[in-house]
Specification:
The strands form 3 sheets. This protein has a 4-stranded antiparallel β-sheet with strand order 1-8-3-6. It has a 4-stranded antiparallel β-sheet with strand order 2-7-4-5. About 35% of the residues are buried. The chain starts with a helix and ends in a 19-residue tail after the last helix. With about 240 residues, the protein is an alpha+beta fold. It folds into 2 domains: about 5-120, Jelly Rolls; about 145-225, Arc Repressor Mutant, subunit A. Helix content is about 40%, strand content about 20%. It has 8 helices and 11 strands.
């Protein structure tokens, strides 16, 4: 696999120069295979590396005092992993593989050098960190203020939109790739409650499920039910600095 996955993501929003693409490729020079279920980075342990997810599906989560797990984000190819860990001695979250994955580890120093020589790329790292922050704020608001059905509906739309970022052929049908327990840990629900909400969405004619695949049958109605906002749209990037090379 050649090129830079992160560059492909960024090129959806800005026209990258050859120098910028070369700098991003340096982040992905090394590759590491991570088996499904393996932990890449553990909460409260020392962290010196960041990663680009090149293949597969991962998640970030924290463990609560009662032993339960709160999934913060699902991570897709082209995502930069562990950015929040770059400013701490110990990782604030756990990164774990939901499928067999390939990641590209790189040292913080490499990120620092990229920021010096390519300020627009460092600005784009900021942009993506803020998109994640706002999406996480949406999730927090949903946990406290929306119904269980709305939370599950929003997650189904979000997963489809993120998968579409790596596979343009995806329309309204996609492989879910998550257990009901994992959906529950992301939405603050039990697996039983998730199952009930999925059935209700099916009965309402909003989705269909078959063989591990989900079909969004009425996307507009589903988005209304979820009160969903796509945070990867409506960006204003006119303030970005110009590329140096």
């Amino acid at each position: 696999m050649s090129g830079s996955c992160f560059a492909e993501v960024l090129s959806e929003f800005v026209d990258l120069t050859e120098g910028e693409r070369s700098a991003l490729e340096k982040l992905e020079e090394r590759q590491r295979h991570v088996r499904r279920g393996a932990v890449l980075q553990r909460e409260n342990e020392a962290c010196n590396e960041l990663f680009i997810l090149r293949k597969g599906l991962m998640m970030s989560y924290v463990l609560l005092d009662d032993g339960s797990r709160q999934i913060l984000r699902f991570l897709f190819p082209g995502d930069m992993l562990g950015v929040s860990s770059a400013i701490y001695l110990e990782a604030p979250e756990t990164l774990a593989a939901l499928s067999d994955c390939v990641v590209c580890p790189f040292d913080r120093v490499v990120l620092s050098e990229m920021m010096v020589h390519h300020p627009r790329l460092s600005a784009m790292v900021l942009v993506y960190s803020q998109i994640e922050r706002v999406a996480l704020t949406d999730r927090l608001a949903a946990l406290g203020r929306t119904s269980a059905k709305a939370r599950v509906a929003a997650l189904l739309i979000e997963l489809r939109n993120r998968l579409r970022g790596t596979d343009k052929d995806i329309t309204n049908v996609y492989a879910l790739g998550l257990t009901q327990e994992e959906i529950g840990d992301a939405t603050g629900l039990t697996a039983v409650h998730v199952n009930r909400m999925l059935r209700q969405l099916e009965e309402d004619g909003l989705i269909a499920r078959e063989g591990g695949r989900v079909t969004l049958r009425d996307e507009r109605a589903l988005a209304r039910a979820a009160n969903y906002v796509n945070r990867y749209e409506g960006l204003d990037l006119g303030w970005l600095p110009k590329a140096k090379n």
